[in-house]
Amino acid sequence: MSRVSTATVEDLTEATAPDRFWNRQRRLGVALVLIGLIAAVIFGSLAESATARFTISEDAEGAALSINGQFGAILFGIVAVAAGGALLAGVAKRWQTLLLCLGIVAFVLSFLCWQVAGKFLPLVDTISGSLELALPLILGALAGVLCERSGVVNVAIEGQFLMGAFGAALVGTLATSVWAGLISAVVGGVIIASLLAVLAIRFLVDQVVVGIVLNLLALGVTGFLYERLMQPDALKYNSPPRLPEWRIPGLADIPVIGPVLFESNLLVWLALALVVVIHLGLTRTRWGLRTRAVGEHPTAADTVGIRVRGLRYMNVLLGGVVAGAGGAYFTLVSTGAFNKNMTAGAGFIALAALIFGRWTPYGALGAALFFGFAQKLANYLSAVGSPVPNQFLNMLPYIATIIAVAGLVGRVRAPAADGVPYVKS
Amino acid sequence: MANDHIDITVEPGEVHALLGENGAGKSTLMNQLYGLLQPDEGEILVDGEPKVFRSPRDAIAAGIGMVHQHFMLVPVFTVAENIALGAEEVRGGPLGWLDRRRNKRDVLETSQRYGLPVDPDALVENLPVGAQQRVEIVKALTRDVDLLILDEPTAVLTPQETDELLAVMRSLADTGKSIVFITHKLREVKAIADRITVIRRGRTVVPSNHPAAAPNRTKGSVSPDTPTDELAALMVGRDVSLEVEKTPAEPGREVLKVSGLIVDDDRGVRAVDHVDLVVRSGEVLGIAGVQGNGQTELVEAIMGLREARAGAIELEEKSLTGRTTKQVLRAGVGYVPEDRSLDGVVKDFTVAENLVLDLYDRAPFGNSFALNPKAIAESARERVSQFDIRTPSSQSTVGTLSGGNQQKVVVAREMSRPLKLLIAAQPTRGVDVGSIEFIHNQIIHERDVGTAVLVVSSELDEVVGLADRIAVMYRGRILAIVSPDMPREEIGLLMAGVVTQEAEDTE
């Protein structure tokens, strides 16, 4: 008896994927070769033959890397082509990701050489600016991870941001305390989250529809209160204190990393810590195992005695906490005052980061940083008067998400029960 | 009402079979015992103490385990994670860090103790169904169950895997555990059960003066010595013929010819691998095989529902490859799909509308612009009586009918045009015994008027009963074409991929 059984266990290992010629690696290889050629030919021919300098700090002195713009654009284009060629030639699978990253980085560098030729790009400013712009995206995407890994689609991140930003501005001003503001931001996020939870989990309303409606609700409520309350008397209601920048002595003196990571505010550290905490929580703890089970196969979770709805409520509310804190960025870190619809779609970019990051905390972090970098670059381009419209770079998150969802960059698989309400049969 | 005053007692160390047709209320009863449903009336006693199960959590605490008909396993989890879920070994107090090593050790321990080999690190989605079922059983056993409920556990297994499972059930019972074995297959009940409870229409059945009544043990149960035909009669409420009555086939010309067919499934994995087969007029070719061995994809390719990667499909020497489904239907092919609620009927449409789903744009039922409700209603009334469809009226929505009557609507629709080829996939899945008999007779009738018939079923009994020749499919290939007179065990071996000398000779 046991012999037959072992045979069936062994059988499955030989059930292999189909042997198609245009497998993922070759498709990626072709894509890299194409973008590499674009870089080498178009960027190379458009680039000025002047020195492009990548400096560490704000001034034009002490370049970390100086390169002729035209030469650099062509060189990095060729590097991307080479990386694509290596993929096409069929190198070992474990090099695949590395080559892909190399190709993309080379493409970005080629683009930068073209744009920076004759000018300079300060690295520290670019990196810390990217991180700051990525901050709400990280928190928003993490909120999405919490909700969606347990099976509730969260399209309401935008609304949670708005309520968080508004709550932080209003209460922060009234209490003249940035901490009170931060707590109110969390409360604002949780208000939207609890509406989402009750409507989606208890009343089984379509989760995407609920999310959109909640975004509109948040926009309407905060917009109304802004016009009636804040605008007439901004000093009394809309001038919250800013989150203080702290400098950690010693660590902040490390070149590049120091000023980026250790001369910053609490929210940045909180976001980065949460990425690790949520990752460990999801993969290493009982809560995480159950959360993932509820998001993949709620009936299976129910039959082993897990309270499916209870766990979903908890995670959606936790997501509200995180997204609300992300909302605080807009008023307590970025601008220092609330403005109507000031989040301007950041919640949707966070959603894109969640999907692009394949519903994992680290993936979300990477995607958020990438999108933050694109935004920062867009700002830089418009500042130096580049011929490339900065709207092109602002489109990047959405294009990247479409590519990710279309499955061009590996398989993107949402939790199986994402968006499916749990009803006992 | 799914359960009506049922009494059932299960003793320690016994295998208690719960026998009944689809929809008789077996699963409903067990779901109450497992806390998934709450009874309106009555009580559950465990070791003599009354218990209330508000959720599976309570049932598990009382020592009850259940292996569900549709496995309750998370496909993207490993075996160990699935087994640990809900009863995780943790350290670090309130943080609840998973203790993976201890979880894994528990799995291996249980697996060895009961002789159920499982690989704790394998991903469940990569396991064949037989192995997944072992995971389910190990999962229940790690929770220290006294009573293990197995809901239709053999539905997805080959005959050999079924025998293995029966042996496991016996050895578990020998260690003092109680087993409730839910099934509608009489042969398995006869092979393993210590006692049998028959359920029909939500009630336990056993005539009080019936010789089958077990001597004074518990009311409602039947001794396993009861003859098979008597059990069948108890199950369906009247004497039924288990065999399909038919005359020898008179095969004529080749109607369907499939050669070198290759089809991929949704994931791009090869599902049909170089299949050649021929169906002649006036014969039934049955395709036997455990579900998921390419039968679905084969039928979908013939029907134009799925693209073939290579090979030829010909209907009376005219190619069907690359045709749309509508063209295939118009060419004279009737199709009873395997999943009736997905592909067979539109549940919110009336019986009459469902009966013309493939003919609505042709006279007399309509033209390119409008329907002719009068003709549709008239023909519907005829079909309803001809095919014995039990419906309040032909204007009732199909969703309100029982599974058997829904299936009769499908069969009636497909058989009411002149056919060259009839393809019936799982024609009696989820259908009551009375309707099964009727549908089988209709299929044989279609054969006798000279139609070529292709029957696909995962129920070996059905294939053996209907077919004049049996093609056994395994992993996308036709392993052999055999006579229905071949011993079941040998067909079973073929279904498990074991090719014997004799089977090769028959081909």
Can you walk me through this structure?
Chain A has helices at residues 2-11, 24-46, 69-89, 96-116, 123-149, 157-174, 178-202, 207-230, 234-237, 257-261, 266-284, 286-296, 298-303, 308-334, 346-356, 361-384, 390-405; strands at 51-55, 63-68, 120-122, 245-247, 263-265. Chain A is mainly alpha-helical and 425 residues long. A three-stranded mixed beta sheet of chain A has the order 2-1-3. Chain A has two domains: 19-118, no CATH class; 127-405, ABC transporter involved in vitamin B12 uptake, BtuC, CATH 1.10.3470.10. Chain A is built from 17 helices and five strands. In chain A, 69% of the residues lie in helices and 5% in strands. In chain A, helix 15 (346-356) packs across helix 16 (361-384). In chain B, strands 1, 4, 7, 8, 9, 10 and 11 form a seven-stranded mixed beta sheet that branches. Chain B has a six-stranded mixed beta sheet with strand order 17-18-19-14-20-21, sandwiched between helices. Chain B contains 18 helices and 21 strands. Mean pLDDT of chain B is 87; it is low at 212-217 and 503-507. Chain B folds into two domains: 15-236, 3-Layer(aba) Sandwich (Rossmann fold), CATH 3.40.50.300; 254-506, P-loop containing nucleotide triphosphate hydrolases (Rossmann fold, 3-Layer(aba) Sandwich), CATH 3.40.50. Chain B has helices at 26-33, 56-61, 79-84, 100-113, 129-141, 159-174, 186-192, 228-236, 295-302, 325-330, 340-344, 351-355, 373-386, 403-415, 433-448, 460-466, 488-495, 501-506; strands at 15-20, 44-46, 49-51, 64-67, 90-91, 97-98, 147-151, 178-183, 195-200, 203-204, 221-222, 254-264, 270-280, 284-288, 308-315, 318-319, 333-336, 421-425, 452-456, 469-474, 477-482. The chains are: A mainly alpha (425), B alpha/beta (507). The interface between A and B is large, with 35 and 48 residues.
